[in-house]
Amino acid sequence: MGATLAHGDKTTGEDTAVALLKFAGGQLATIESSWIEKGGMQLRHEFVGSEGRLVTDTSVSPVWGFIGQPVGYLVEKADSETGWVHPVPEETRAYGFSQQMRHFVDHYEAGTEPSETFHDGVIVNTILDACYRAMRSGHWEPVRYPA
Hints:
Blueprint: E1 2-3, E2 16-22, E3 28-34, E4 44-49, E5 52-57, E6 65-67, E7 83-85, H1 91-94, H2 97-110, H3 118-137
Antiparallel strand pairs: 1-2, 2-3, 4-5, 6-7
Domain Gfo/Idh/MocA-like oxidoreductase C-terminal: 9-140
Protein name: Gfo/Idh/MocA-like oxidoreductase C-terminal domain-containing protein
Family: Belongs to the Gfo/Idh/MocA family.
């Protein structure tokens, strides 16, 4: 499911979405993506197994402050320029952007294949296509991997 709930003036796409994925082995995964949450963007992941749980949150910052007047850019998708703010130190590193770009440049220069391949991108987009079909149909949709 997905909808444009708050940013119709900024996008023709959805600004919030939830996907429920069911795997061939019966496992389930939920994916939530939104840029309408008050308090700024979260980058949280939870993996739950039969013997434990792993949680990451790269948007958690040990730095916060109260700002009375706007000072400019604080963090990606910040919903407020004043009040209590939580900038993320070294934001591109915390979100993995700089490491990702370095990885691709290193592999390009070496003439080797990166960890994430074109094939991986096709798989991700095939899953996204199934999610968009489910948004339109309102039902489970199979992932149709191209032959």
